Give the backbone structure.
Amino acid sequence: MAHMEQRGNPIGLGLAMTMVWGLVVTGPALAEPTPVGLAMETPTPAQHAHQMTAPFTTRSITEEQRVAIEQQYGVSILGVRMTAAGHMLDFRYRVMDTAKAGRLIRPKMGLALIDQATKAEMPVPVMDKVGALKQTRSHLFPDRTYSVLFANRSGVVKSGSKVSIQFGDLALDNLIVE
């Protein structure tokens, strides 16, 4: 306790600054009176935009390609996005027909993501205790989204880059990283 008094109690100053900042941010909302007798409304999703995520869809595949892939392989390709501050690439797909998708999606299926500009191949990381960072199941569920994470070594792939993905027997070219 004597040590804190000698340094001027920096913990108290930090707490005071946090409280002042909280009043600056919430002060106008606290100043408005709430009408008596009216129930508070539940916030709508639009009011909480920070909690909403944009739909995970791609503009890289035409509608005709999407339908053809879905009819042949039973999956809908949702796209590739950067994640983990650009250190990983998140490839997502939705299983539409479990019988067709089961022939494509297997635990030992071949997966590769290749940057088309540099021809660099991005691996699926394998963790000691977790295993490969991909979702494969012995039993697939219809209308469920699955994902595969690829390591973006040295940040080779950037947002807007075109990549190719070898996904089992399906080769996807010209996917734009979003």
Q: What stands out?
A: Strands lie at 75-83, 88-95, 111-115, 121-122, 126-127, 131-132, 144-151, 162-167, 170-176.
